[in-house]
Amino acid sequence: MITFMNNSDSEEEPCNERTSLMSAESPPVPSYQDGLQASEAGEAQAHRKRRAGSRGPNNIAGGEMSGSGVPVRESALENEEEELTLKYGAKHVIMLFVPVTLCMIVVVATIKSVRFYTEKNGQLIYTPFSEDTPSVGQRLLNSVLNTIIMISVIIVMTVFLVLLYKYRCYKFIHGWLILSSLMLLFLFTYIYLGEVLKTYNVAMDYPTLFIVIWNFGAVGMICIHWKGPLQLQQAYLIMISALMALVFIKYLPEWSAWVILGAISIYDLMAVLCPKGPLRMLVETAQERNEPIFPALIYSSAMMWTVGMAKPDTAARGPSQQRWDAAEDGREHLRSPSHAESQMSETRSPVPTRPVTSLEELEEEERGVKLGLGDFIFYSVLVGKAAATASGDWNTTLACFVAILIGLCLTLLLLAVFKKALPALPISITFGLIFYFSTDNLVRPFMDTLASHQLYI
Amino acid sequence: PAFGLFIFTIARDPLRIIILIAGAFFWLVSLLLSSLIWFIAVKASDPQDERLQKGLLIFGVMFSVLLQEAFRFLYYKLLRKAIEGLVALSEDGCSPISIQQMAYVAGVGFGLMSGAFSMINLLADALGPGTVGIHGDSQLYFLTSAFMTMVLIFLHTFWGILFFHGCEHRRWWEIAAVVIMHLIVSGSSFCNPLYVGSLVPSYLLMAAAAAWAYLLSGGSAQNLRRFLLCKC
Fold this sequence. Notes:
The complex is a heterodimer of chains A (457) and B (232). Chain A has a domain at 90-299 and 370-453. Chain A has 11 helices and 8 strands. Chain A has helices at 33-53, 75-113, 136-166, 170-200, 206-225, 230-251, 254-273, 278-289, 373-389, 394-418, 425-453, and strands at 18-20, 298-300, 322-323, 331-335, 344-348, 357-358, 370-372, 421-423. Chain A has a two-stranded antiparallel ribbon. Chain A has a two-stranded antiparallel ribbon with strand order 2-7. Chain A has a two-stranded antiparallel sheet with strand order 3-6. In chain A, helix 1 packs across helix 2 (75-113) and helix 4 (170-200) runs antiparallel to helix 5. Chain B has one domain (1-218). Chain B is 81% helix and 0% strand. Chain B has helices at 2-10, 14-44, 50-89, 99-127, 141-169, 172-188, 195-216, 221-231. In chain B, helix 2 packs antiparallel against helix 3 (50-89), helix 2 packs across helix 4 (99-127) and helix 3 packs across helix 4 (99-127). Chains A and B meet through helix 2, helix 10 and helix 11 of A and helix 2, helix 3, helix 4 and helix 5 of B. Chain A: It is an enzyme of class 3 (hydrolase). Chain A: It is found in: Endoplasmic reticulum membrane; Golgi apparatus membrane. Chain A: One of its GO terms (biological process) is amyloid-beta formation.
């Protein structure tokens, strides 16, 4: 392992992910004002009507409309909106399914094949209590203490980030994000590549390695923080989430990992929904200022069009809806493993899931749904842990995978109903945990016995 | 083949994927509950008694079958409600996906999940070194498992269609037929390793179910002929 001391403070900022559907209170551009308001009202009505009648799981409502109350609406546009929303509703869910699935696949594949990530080589300094204790009670106590420490670190980090954001220390935040993604992209990739090459006994010389990692890292930095093809950016975000998840899987002791997963979903729930929760404050602040959130912290499934792109046409058909939900929450999470890597920054961001719509008249709406990177990471941690430690192997992994996907579905459904920032973790993680423990303990003996007699149910 | 089904028919439409995953989820929950029951029964009984264990296993299997069908029914109810919602949403009053398609997708979901659970550990072990049937068991273990799994996946698909159709039109005998077929197939697997006893009836039943489902879905011998002729 590479060890080097780094004196910079290792701060962790847990990013809580939430999927949030933000309502844009302020229309982005004054010139659209009237049209927007009209369309807002119309959409609001449309959505209200829809909401009353439907329980369709695919209604991830695009527009959050904080209707301005002007009840002007041509029914044509309304219907069009509805249909588009409906068509895109299920699409959004799939747009999130695919990256989550990919991330999980990468993590599971690595866990299964590379031995490094399942060996216990020490713990993070954030989980100081070891789990090698003789008695069960002691072990439980240690894991609970570990969890408390970890969660308090996360809370501190979150509050810190919120304060920074509130006082507009953008430079600092940006620098922090860049530093953390730098570390992720270069250091972790180096370790990962090293281990993979070791496993498959492939020799690679240092210059080649250097070139490969340099290219990978540089392109990654550009893609994530600046501009780049959407798919490439998505791919990079998935990769860094997977890397981060692998680090977690390796360095968190077993029971602590499960307790931490549970605790963090509870924290997520509280931080997003309680009125004084840090995440919520962050979201609201960002909303007030109508700003986009740092691109390095969230995964967006569609292109975000800027305001200038759409043309309003208030006269003829109704204005283009530009809804720019700027409430996104970004949180960075920096961690350092115990044998001293300098700074791990993990960027997880709360997820405001909000479809961003920039509608050009009859053009297709580029609605995207956003999910925080932390969500990816914790889902992958759950599935990866299931793959690593479950004795039922693939069955358990598969069960957790399905459970997480269903949880995601339900969360998105709730998002469509509530239309505000929602935590993406609790439901999925709860399902995942339930299924993991039950599959491991209950289903596995059953299936094993069935398989040994070759019975089929 | 099941994956082929998935890719060609389901992967296009996101709604179907959601229904598929939800179907898999329902199957999983039913499996969970049935294994819970079995586990409790085993723990409460004497582990030394061979016959009792076997009997409990059989009981567990039957119970699981019944639970699966019960969950299929629950899923049907859920999908009905979802369809009503979708109809209310869409502008021209008809839902973007019909109940038959849902039935098909739900069946595939169930089938995929059950197939995956049956096969995947086997496949993982098959990668490693070893000899099949070294202790005097059949050497065809992998092959027969593969075939059995495939037939089970298809059967679940067809049962899904039949079941939903039965629920739609309130024909209880159709539903009962599905349940009985499922029980027969599972029961026939008790004949293993006498593979004739299990594979052959299962395939026959599958052919029957396929034909039945095809007819129910509106196909006919004419359609089939036309389809085949047009292609070549």
